[in-house]
Amino acid sequence: MMNCKEAVRLMSLERDSTLSATQRFALRFHTLLCTGCRNYRQQMAFLHTASVERASGAISDGQKDDA
Amino acid sequence: MLQLRDQAAAEDAVQETMLAALQGVERFASRAQLKTWVFSILKNKIIDAIRRRVREPNMTPPDEEIADSDFDPLFDERGHWRRESQPSTWGDPVKALENTRFWAVFDVCMNRLPANTARVFMMREVLGLETEEICRELALSSGNCWVVLHRARMGLRLCLEETWFGKKGETA
Q1: How many Cβ pairs within 8 Å bridge chains A and B?
Q2: Fewer CB atoms inside 10 Å of the end CB: C or N, chain B?
Q3: How many domains would you assign to chain A?
Q4: Domain limits for position B3
Q5: What ipTM was reported for this prediction?
Q6: Is residue A66 part of a domain?
Q7: Mind listing the pLDDT tens digit for each residue in B31-48?
Q8: Rounded to two decimals, what is the model's pTM?
Q9: Nearest CA distance, B25 vs chain A (angstrom)
Q10: Same domain membership, residue B51 and residue B30
Q11: A31-39: which pairs have CB atoms within 8 A and are 24 or more residues apart?
């Protein structure tokens, strides 16, 4: 089985590029069994959300506005 | 603005955006709509400024990087997470976005990344540029670009886990 070090590398790569079918399959299999890597993947998604929010928040400059 | 360490260039970009925003302000029904619109203008201004900047000679910042070995202690000899460094669940992390203390932590973590690494990360995640384009603009090989992005994510998540999400009670 693929190790976690390789899995996290692929979880980053999949956000920037397209994985091969083999890589996708191996990664899916790994994350099925590995809680740490499942958490890691959710953290990656959150990093994206937070970064976008940080940049747009910098514009409204601390104003608590809109919904 | 992480993308433009150069203070003057950042101020120019903001100023131009504000002027453009004021000219178009009456067209917007809600502030949310206005905010989205201002952000999209600023984003384009930043991209323009980055392009202008990298084309100027002698402006390429020195390459400081996080070494791969910096993350080695997180894994055992077979490359699996060590028990104590296994990524934890962050629960419902979106809640943290409403907490001003979280943003202070987020900025600290972002600033801990090497300047170049943070810049590549923001160009990808916030500006949504394609990796190929980022590499071209910053004259990096595409392989190198992916490595930099990976290290940025590793560094950022580790910092957030250690300083925010790992501390029980902070996120509740």
Answers
A1: 106
A2: C
A3: 1
A4: 1-59
A5: 0.87
A6: no
A7: 666 667 777 777 777 777
A8: 0.74
A9: 14
A10: yes
A11: A31/A7, A33/A1, A34/A4, A34/A7, A34/B81, A35/B86, A36/A4, A36/B81, A36/B86, A36/B87, A37/A4, A37/A7, A37/A8, A37/A11, A37/B81, A37/B87, A39/B86, A39/B87, A39/B88, A39/B89, A39/B90
